[in-house]
Amino acid sequence: MTSPSRRTLAHALRALAMDAVQQASSGHPGMPMGMADIAEALWRHHLKHDPATPDWADRDRFVLSNGHGSMLLYGLLHLSGYDLSIDDLKAFRQLHSRTPGHPELGYTPGVETTTGPLGQGIANAVGMALAEQLLAAEFNRPGHAVIDHRTWAFLGDGCLMEGVSHEACALAGTWGLGKLTAFWDDNGISIDGHVEGWFSEDIPGRFEACGWHVVRGVDGHDSAALDAAISQAKAETARPTLICCRTTIGFGSPNKAGTHDSHGAPLGAAEIAATKAALGWAHGPFEIPDDVRAGWDAREQGQAARSDWQRRFDAYAAAHPGLAAELERRLAGDLPEGFAALAERAVAEAAERAATVASRKASQESIAAFAPALPELLGGSADLTGSNLTNWPGCVSVTPERLRAGLGGNYLHYGVREFGMAAIMNGVSLHGGFRVFGGTFLMFSEYARNALRMAALMKQPVIQVFTHDSIGLGEDGPTHQPVEQTATLRLIPNMDIWRPCDAVETRAAWAAALQSTAHPTCLILSRQNLAHQPRDAAQIAAVARGGYVLLPAEGEAQGLRPQLVLVATGSEVQLAVQAREQLAARGVRARVVSLPSLFAFKAQDAAWREAVLPAGVPRVAVEAGATSGWREIVGLDGAVVGLDSFGESAPAPALFQHFGITAEAVAAAGLRVLGLDSPLKAVARHGQQVWLDQLSRTLVASGALQRWIDEHGIAGVTSNPAIFAQAFASDTAYAPALAQLRAEEPDLERRFERLAVADVQAACDVLRPLHERTAGDAGFVSFEVSPRLSRDGAGTLAAARRLWAEIGRANAMIKIPATPECLDAIADAVADGININVTLIFSPRQLLQVFEACALGLRKRQERGLPVDRVRSVASLFVSRVDTWVDRLLPAGSEALRGEVGIANARNAYALWLDRFGGSEFAGLRAAGARAPSCLWASTGVKNPAWRDTRYVEALIGPDTVDTVPDATMAAFAGHGQAARTLDTALPEARATLAAAARCGIDLDLLGEQLEAEGLAQFEQAFERLMAAVA
C-alpha cells in the first residue's frame, strides 16, 4: 500500500484545525493551515520526543509562540500518539477540556509552556535553550552527552512585533544558543489585514545583526526546502537559527487563503467543504484515515530514542554516580536533602546577627547563605547587579566566551531587558534543572508584568528580586519610586509577594521562595537600612506564616485584649513599632502585626489568622504605597496610612515626612479609628452623646457643624433664647433675611421663629445621616417653645405641635420647661410622637416628675396603637448652676462639699434613672422598642476659675446620657479632656455627699424650685432681648 504523501499528512493537520474551530464556533484556523507543512517537516523528521513520556528529560522542546494557532499543536500531539484523543479535539475551547483556546501548561500532555501573549513563547524558548546549554556544560562528561537536545519554536508576525521577542532574541544571539531554531511564519497577515502598513522592518537583517544564523526565503509549503533549512539549522552550532518561511495563511481555502478572514474565525461549513475538496481531503469532520495515522505515529520511534538515552544515562550513572544523582534531583525539582533544616538554621543565624541593613543587602546575604547548598541557583539582573545586590561570593557570570568554550555559570547579565529577563526566566524554569531568580527595580516590574503573570499562571517557582521598593529610594524621584506596584502585584493570582521588614524576615522570605514548588515569588526590598526587630523563637518560626504578632499590646500576657492592631510591612514596620509606643503613652493598648506575605498568611488556618488579627479589634495598616488593597485587612472602619499619589525627588526622610508616612501619622490614625483623636470622640465610647450648646446660621453654612461631627463626634445641637440672641447679635449672616422679615412679618415672635426654624432645619439636615445611622438615637436639634408659655401648659403643647410640624424633621426636638404646669404637655407631646427636650430640671423631685410624664406619654401612645420606637426624650438636669447656689449656702467648715453637690446630684439622678427604667416597670414599653428618656447634663461650664475647666464633663461620663457643653468648655475638653467612665463608678459616694449637704441644711427640692424660677426669669429676659434684636 502506498504511504500518504507528506502534503497529505500535512492536510490532516489542516482538516483537524478547520473542524475543531468550526465545532467550537471560535478559534484561529489560518495559522495551522499555513504552517502545517512546516510542522510536518519538523515533527516527523527532526523532533526528538516520546509521546508516551512527555516529560522525558532529554526530549527536544517545542514552543508554539503564536499560541492562537493552538489547534496545530493539538493536532500534532494527537496524531503523534500523545494522550490526547479525538474527543479531546472535539472539545476544543470548551470548559475544562484538555484543548483550551491557547496552549496551557498542565492541561495537555506535550505542551511545554503556556502561550498566547505574543512574543513570550519565543522568549521562553530562549530560556529553555539556555538551560539546556548550561546543564550540558555542568553535567556532560567526555563520552557521556546526557543533556543534548534542541529547542524549536514557531512564531508569527505578531510575535516579532512584540518587543519582548527582540529582547530575548538579542540575548540568544549574544549567548550563541546554537541549539535554538525559530520558524518565522512570514504570511504577511495580522488581525487588521496585510501588515505592510505597520510591519515593514527587515526581520532577517535584524536577526543577523543580533548574531543569529538566518535562513532566508524558504517556501513554507515545500517539504524539501524545509528539510534543507532545518538541516542547515542543525549544522550551525554557534548561533541560533531563524528560518524565514514564506507561507499562505489559510492555505487551501479557495476564498479566504491569504487574507485576514481566515485568521481568527471559523471558515464556515461551505468554505470548509470547498477547502477539503481543493486539498483532495475526502473525509468528514475529525476523520483521520488509518494510513495517515500510521504516517504520523511517533510512539515507536520516540520509545526507541528514549530507550537509547536511558541506556546512555545508565552508563553515565555508573561512571559518574554523584553527578547522575544530582542531575536527577535537579530535573525532578527537588531540593537537597535537609534543606528545610538548613533554611531554619539560616533564619536563626540572621536573627542572632540582628543586623540593621537594607533588605536588598539582607537579600544578598541570604543568597550567599543558601547558594553553597543550591548549585541549581541561577541568578541575574537587568543591568542593576550593583543596586539589586543579586550576585554573591563565588557566583560565575555566564558570558558568551564561556558558553563558546563549553563552560557554564550561574549568574546572568540580561542588560536593560526586564520583560525579556522575566520571560527567559520562565523558560529556564519550565525546562527544569535550575532555581532561577532575577533582579530589577520594583518600578520596572511594570515592563515585565505580563511575564510575571504568566509565571503565576504556569505555577513556576521563579523568584523576582525587586529592590528600591518605595519613596524610600529617595532622590531619583517619581519615575523610579513605586506607588501602586506592590499592591497590584498582590492582585496576581498564585503570586506570593514578600515585603520583609528586616534581615530576619528577608532570610525567611528567601527560604519560603526557594521551597515553593507551584507559585512564583516576588521579593520587595528596600534601598534604605531597616532596623532589626527582636523576636523570640516562636516569632522567628512564625515569620514563615506570612503574618504574625511582632509586638503584643501591653497587658496581653495578662489576658487583656488589644484595643488596636497596627499592621505593617517592610520599612513601615518600624513606624508601627514607634506608633505603638506613642499610643501606649495615650493609654491605648496596640498590637503590632508584621504581614510580610499576605499570600502566605491567607494560606494559614482560620485559627491562626484570628489569633493574629482578632475579629472586632480595630486595625490600622501602614505601607509606603497604594492604600486600597489594605481595606481587605482593615475593613471600611479601619485606616490605612500610605501613598495614593506619585512621589517627589528628595532625600527619603524628607519624603516620608512630606507624605505623612510617619509613626505620628500611624498613631493618629489609630486614635481616629478608636474615636480617640478628639477626647470628645472618646466620650462616645462610653455611651454618652455630646451636643453643641450653640446654633447659628454661620455654624451650619460654613461647614463648622459638619466638622464638629466629623472631627469630634458631636451628636446633636441644642438652642435656647439666649443662644439665638447671641447669634443674632454677632452673626452677620442673618442681616439679609432679617431685613426681609422686618418688611413682611409684623409679629416679632413669628419673625424670630421664621429665622430660627430655618437654622434648626438646616442643622437637622446636617445631622440626619447620624440620626439615620443610629436608628434615631442621635443627631437631634433642640428648639425651645416661647418662655412666655412656661406656666401655660395648653399653650406650650399647642406651640410644640406647631413647631414640630413647621420644622418637619424627624430629628428635631422641641424643648419644654419642667414646670408643674407643663408636665401634662410633656406627656401629650410624647404621645403625639414629638421628640421632647425637657429643660430647667434641678432637683430629684423634678426629675422623677419628668420621668413619669415621659413614660406616661409613651404608654398613651402605645394604647393608641402607635409605634413607640422612634420617639425620643431627654431630661435636662442643670449641674454647675446647682453648685453656684449651694456653695453660697454652705456653712463654714464644709469646704469639702464645695463644687461637689452638683456632680453628686447628677450622679444620683442617674441612679434614679436606672431604678425607674431598668426594671420590670418599663419592660413592656422596652419590649415594644421604646427608649426611656435620657439624662442630659446641662450647665456644665465651670464658674469657679480655681477648678479644672473640664470637671463637670469629666465627672459625668456614662452610658445612655447626653452632655450639652458650652463653647469654652468644649474647646477645653477637646484640648486636654480625659474621657473615662465616671458617672456610675462612685454612686455611694454621691449619696454620701448629698446626705452631708442635707445635714448642712441644703434642701435640693426647695433649691430646685428657686433655681427653676430664676432660670425662667433669665430665659424670659433673654427672650425679650431677642425680640428687641429682631424688632
Helix content: 40-55%
Query: Numbering strands along the chain, what is their spatial order in the largest sheet?
Result: 21-22-23-24-25-26-27-28
What does the overall shape look like?
elongated
- Per DSSP, the total helix count is 44
Count of extended strands: 28
Give the SSE map:
Blueprint: H1 6-24, H2 30-45, E1 61-64, H3 70-80, H4 86-90, H5 120-139, E2 151-156, H6 157-161, H7 163-175, E3 180-186, E4 189-190, E5 193-194, H8 203-209, E6 213-219, H9 223-235, E7 241-246, H10 269-279, H11 290-296, H12 299-319, H13 321-332, H14 339-353, E8 357-358, H15 359-370, E9 377-381, H16 385-388, H17 400-404, E10 411-413, H18 418-431, E11 435-441, H19 445-457, E12 463-467, H20 485-490, E13 496-498, H21 503-515, E14 521-524, E15 529-530, H22 537-542, E16 548-551, E17 564-568, H23 573-585, E18 590-594, H24 598-602, H25 606-612, E19 619-622, H26 631-634, E20 639-641, H27 652-658, H28 663-673, H29 679-684, E21 688-692, H30 697-701, H31 704-712, E22 716-717, H32 721-730, H33 735-744, H34 748-773, E23 780-784, H35 793-807, E24 812-817, H36 823-831, E25 836-841, H37 844-863, E26 873-878, H38 880-889, H39 901-917, H40 923-927, E27 934-938, H41 951-954, E28 961-965, H42 967-976, H43 987-999, H44 1004-1030
Parallel strand pairs: 1-2, 2-3, 3-7, 6-7, 9-10, 9-11, 11-12, 12-14, 13-14, 17-18, 17-19, 19-20, 21-22, 21-28, 22-23, 23-24, 24-25, 25-26, 26-27, 27-28
Antiparallel strand pairs: 4-5, 8-15, 16-18
Helix pairs in contact: 1-2, 1-3, 1-10, 2-3, 2-9, 5-7, 5-18, 7-18, 12-13, 14-21, 15-21, 18-19, 23-28, 32-44, 34-44, 35-36, 36-37, 37-39, 39-43
